[in-house]
Design brief:
Elements lengths: L2 H5 L10 H28 L7 H6 L8 E2 L2 E2 L3 H14 L1 H21 L2 H12 L5 E4 L9 H4 L3 E5 L2 E12 L6 E8 L5 E7 L5 E5 L11 E12 L10 H36 L1 E2 L2 E2 L4 H29 L5 H25 L11 H13 L4 H13 L6
Parallel strand pairs: 3-6, 4-6
Antiparallel strand pairs: 1-2, 4-5, 5-9, 6-7, 8-9, 10-11
Helix pairs in contact: 2-4, 4-5, 4-8, 4-9, 5-6, 5-8, 8-9, 8-10, 8-11, 9-10, 10-11, 10-12
């Protein structure tokens, strides 16, 4: 059994049309041949491998599920499996794409006017413009719906934005940053596209992260930033619109968790066949096979859940609680899986050259972003009991 079928044990990719399965193979080949040989160096440096962006663009996967505006118009199922393949190669690359093609392009696609979609989405699909998404703040993470402190106020034909955003991936090199701010007059949450080099907009990269080090997360300062009315997203008029974007992208994060698990598992599986102890490969040891089967069970269950979630997205029937259950469950199983992969490799598992340690570290960020396990659990709990317990 080859490594693709060994980690896709029930052939879920077989649900895709031939051309989309070929796309998955192209993404996997790119990650294996172009990313894996260099990613440890970029991860250690804490910088994103920007020289790879032109080749990433050639894959034609930015804005995968959006129709029109130069976007591929593929299914959410294909988009999810692409996110999985990216994360299997490296979770930082997958996160970069999730921010650019999911959160930033998705906000413009769902909340922009026709003119705004025509203006921004085609160059973003070609990755000539890179996007970021500014929602989380220094004092507001899980409670950002109520605790949003960044403000905006109308000033003639423009808006003035003041505040801070934190943990914003891609922000320090993005061409466009979606910023969510509370209108001082109406208290509504509005969305804006802030373009690079706008006066009053500045970023500082967050240093010394232990996870997703190749993602350049930044602290954004907005000090009297003037944004023209034409850059206010015309269909972003409440936090409900923000939540619509997050519902769409949360499923992709669940797929990324599957990919992180698969990457660790595949490296551990290869290692088990090569590592010799007591005169034979450790793949012949019962306890090693038990760890591998546990990992595969987690991966298969999570991928099956994600597949159904993506099918519901394609049918236009995905609910918040369904996306939340997938995100919470798959990230919990991911944490177990990468830990078992590290365990199988013994002390060698903590050496970056063997890759698994990078997945162990990166899993910690995937576990928390786009809704912590606790918050997603409470969203599901409210749905199944009819009683809110978030506060």
């Amino acid at each position: 059994m080859d490594t693709i079928s060994a980690s896709d044990f029930y052939d879920l990719a077989g649900l895709l049309p031939d051309e989309d399965r070929e796309l998955l193979r192209r993404v996997r080949t790119f990650m294996d041949e172009k990313v894996e040989p260099v990613i440890n160096e970029w991860w250690t440096r804490g910088k994103f491998p920007q020289p790879l962006i032109p080749e990433l663009a050639e894959l034609g996967i930015a804005g995968n599920p959006y129709r029109g505006y130069g976007c591929p118009g593929r299914s959410f199922l294909t988009d999810g499996m692409v996110a999985m393949e990216l994360s299997r190669g490296d979770p930082s690359i997958a996160t970069f794409f999730g921010v650019h093609g999911g959160l930033a392009m998705g906000t413009i696609y769902l909340c922009g006017s026709e003119e705004q979609k025509q203006r921004w989405l085609p160059p973003m699909a070609r990755m000539e413009l890179i996007g970021a998404f500014g929602l989380t703040e220094p004092q507001s993470g899980s409670d950002v719906a109520r605790g949003l402190r960044t403000t905006c106020r109308r000033d003639g034909d423009s808006w003035v934005i003041d505040g801070h955003k934190k943990w914003i991936g891609n922000a320090s090199f993005a061409d466009l940053v979606v910023i969510w701010a509370r209108d001082e007059e109406t208290d509504r949450v509005l969305g804006f596209v802030v373009e690079k080099d706008t006066p009053g907009f500045s970023t500082v990269d967050l240093e010394d992260k232990i996870a997703l080090r190749a993602v350049q997360n930044a602290l954004i300062t907005l000090d009297g930033v003037h944004v023209p009315e034409e850059n206010r997203l015309q269909e972003a008029n409440s936090f409900r619109d923000t939540a619509n974007v997050l519902r769409m992208t949360r499923a992709s994060v669940a797929w990324s968790a599957v990919g992180c698990s698969r990457g660790a598992y595949e490296h551990a599986l290869a290692y088990a066949g090569e590592r010799t102890q007591f005169g034979r490969p450790i793949a012949e040891f019962q306890l090693v096979q038990d760890l591998l089967v546990r990992m595969l069970g987690n991966i298969t269950a999570s991928a099956a859940m994600c597949t159904r979630v993506s099918q519901l997205q394609d049918e236009g029937r995905l609910a918040d609680e369904q996306a939340s259950l997938a995100k919470a469950f798959c990230t919990m199983r991911m944490r177990e899986t990468v830990g078992w992969a590290r365990e199988l490799m013994g002390g060698n598992g903590i050496l970056l050259e063997n890759h698994v340690g990078r997945y162990v570290a990166d899993a910690e960020a995937i576990y928390s972003y786009e809704g912590t396990r606790e918050v997603n659990s409470l969203i599901v709990g409210r749905a199944i009991t009819g009683r809110g317990a978030i506060v």
